[in-house]
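Please fill in the sequence for the structure shown.

STRUCTURE ENCODING:
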């Protein structure tokens, strides 16, 4: 709180006090008061005015500075009323009560929308479980048709994958409630993801190479399998027709982390797009060329890795390869957001 700004705010009061002092001097002149008396009374008057202004300034300064410092240190700004004491001056009390009322209203509003979001997410999860039953039935019927049903099986597999994406996305915002962090072998998890996408990989003629995946990391195997599934699906969208499609998955280890490289030889990512590929709904230049792109796969991947305590990054050369790297830290205690 700046003292000069405070004086500027009190300018009307200072003008009134100065006017009163000038009127008082007129009375002193009219009664032919001595110069010494006028000086003493003037000094007392202005010292009193200064003392009142300073006292009010420091009282307000203590409250507002503490409130400003508390606000800077808070991640959740609406908790400010809990961090400051009630002020001892009337203006401050009014301000404090207004802040409390606003905070209460905001909390009630957030709680309402959170309940709405929770109810919608529960509905989505229920809907996904219900719609998976007819999809599974149709897949079985198509499988029983033999070769005639293969084209339907492929489309049903895609529908099932999209429905599963809806379920995982709905859960990803509160995924920490569904985490089971334990020692997991990377190879076993990747094998499960590859088997889920076996038909798509075979139809595209993709060669999958796995190296050094016997390493163990601390993670949730179900969510990691979903991350691998997303990476496989993303690679399948962007393979180049000019060469044989390949996916190489390998793991390297150092003193601080185990890093998994998920590398494909697809069309790659332009350098201008690379910093933004993990942002929500970002499709970039490749997305404009491929209508199947939604910009959600890598966003969900990054979001889940962050919640699991892993780090994800990417390297790519347009027209040559894309390498998605997931780092699993060692001896780190997982803390949900």
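FILLED IN BY: designer on duty
SEQUENCE:
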């Amino acid at each position: 709180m700046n003292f000069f700004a405070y004086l500027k705010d009190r300018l009307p009061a200072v003008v009134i006090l100065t006017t009163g002092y000038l009127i008082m001097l007129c009375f002193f002149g009219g009664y032919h008061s001595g110069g010494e008396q006028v000086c003493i009374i003037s000094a007392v008057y202005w010292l009193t005015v200064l003392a009142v202004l300073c006292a009010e300034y420091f009282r307000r300064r203590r409250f507002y500075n503490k409130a400003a410092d508390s606000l800077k240190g808070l991640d959740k700004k609406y908790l400010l009323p809990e961090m400051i004491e009630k002020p001892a001056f009337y203006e401050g009390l009014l301000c404090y009560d207004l802040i409390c009322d606003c905070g209460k209203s905001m909390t009630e509003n957030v709680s309402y929308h959170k309940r709405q979001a929770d109810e919608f997410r529960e509905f989505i999860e229920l809907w996904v479980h219900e719609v998976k039953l007819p999809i599974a039935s149709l897949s079985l019927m198509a499988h029983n048709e033999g070769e005639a049903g293969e084209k339907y099986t492929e489309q049903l597999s895609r529908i099932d994958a999209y429905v599963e994406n809806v379920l995982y996305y709905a859960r990803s915002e509160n995924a920490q409630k569904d985490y089971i962090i334990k020692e997991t072998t990377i190879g076993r998890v990747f094998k499960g993801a590859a088997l889920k996408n076996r038909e798509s990989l075979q139809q595209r003629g993709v060669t999958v190479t796995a190296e050094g995946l016997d390493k163990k990391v601390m993670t949730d195997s179900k969510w990691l399998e979903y991350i691998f599934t997303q990476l496989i699906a993303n690679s399948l969208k962007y393979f180049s027709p000019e060469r044989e499609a390949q996916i190489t998955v390998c793991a390297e280890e150092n003193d601080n982390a185990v890093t998994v490289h998920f590398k494909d030889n697809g069309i790659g990512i332009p350098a201008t797009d690379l910093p933004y590929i993990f942002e929500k709904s970002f499709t970039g230049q490749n997305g404009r060329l491929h209508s199947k792109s939604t910009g959600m796969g890598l966003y969900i991947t990054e979001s889940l890795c962050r919640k699991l305590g892993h780090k994800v990054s990417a390297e790519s050369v347009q027209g040559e390869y894309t390498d998605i790297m997931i780092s699993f830290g060692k001896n780190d205690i997982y803390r949900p957001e």
